[in-house]
# Entry
Amino acid sequence: MPRLAAASLAGTAIEFYDFFVYGTAAALVLGPLFFPTFSPLAGTLAAFATFGVGFVARPLGSVLFGHLGDRRGRRPVLVISLLLTGVATVAVGCVPTYESIGAAAPVLLLVLRFVQGVGLGGEWGGAVLLTAEHAPPERRALWASFPQVGPAIGFLLANGVMLVLSATLTDAQFASWGWRIPFWGAGLLAVAGLALRASLAESPDFLEVREHARVPLVEVARHHWRLVLLTAGALAVGYAVFYAVTTWSLSYGVERLGVSRTVMLACIMGAVVVKGALTPVAALLGDRYGRRPMCLVGCSAVALWMFPMVALLATGEPLLMFLGFLVALLAFVVMFSVVAAYLPELYEPRVRCTGAAVGYNLAGVLGGALTPLVATAAARGEGTPWGVAAYLTAVAVLSLGCFALLPETLPAREEAVVPATG
# Structure
């Protein structure tokens, strides 16, 4: 289990590095470089729109790779998705700007971001299921939480590189070529990830299923559509909070509050470090007290904290901003530390890769793709952007209702888990 968890964590870290480095670049430089004819606000919105395309592509990736995972096994998904995302990310770093090739530049950016999203849509299902299906039932949330630490590490890698470049290069150098370096680095990370995953064993649950669904998506749509919609609605709040903190607030702090890139990145990264470190701890609580109670508590905390978080952000004071981000991400981790165990337990093994991945990635469209766009538009006026807080609170209330309708799946201590088919 430690070797398997480490390989899954490393792979998700690499793939989310690829995904997050684009989000940071969208917040800092892509607007002026690829949409120079727009106003600063419109350019940022356009850059966030290309960022959102990755989320729109993720459900497609979950369908394609979910089919592969349910028909051929979880292991091939890990290799192909990592390779696809890595190639697309390196290619983003090579795209000429609008000044060089005109309108073709943002089009190429859009296409590559879409490919990134397809790859990441397959990654989560493969990595989480391979770990969760190997894990003993009484510690499934703990072991399955390690791939969930991967996004935090990927974020820290992506923003750490951006932070170093931002601190050591002039604005002109960063805009000219410095922003491309993190994208090129994705190639080396992808090679390392492929080496780690080459020797992983196939999931025992997949090997034990005698009859695999012929078209898993059709079976999920016929028999599990309600469960997919509920999980998508429930998890939307996690995406909304995470990308409000890590993407929108970065853009808002730099462009509207006049806080330096270095300070904003440091505040956000500090909160993400704590979030990543506490993920396994929260998962242990999920193994003891259940998946659903943890999700309900975390979601309620998000709903109560969004207005204070936005108020603290609007001060522009580093310590207060850090506090706002930290509490928001702690509420997030209470929910998402158990999600990697919760979703697989909700679906039967023969359609688990498709069902869990589609629900998870549809939530990304609802929460991740829309949040930077809606938040940027809602923060146009002067003063504290209360509209952003209201939007995030509304998403939290929606997710809370969906969590309330989902069943508990915590395995009995003396029994193996019996997945729900709801």
Notes: The CA atoms of residues 144 and 340 lie 5 Å apart.
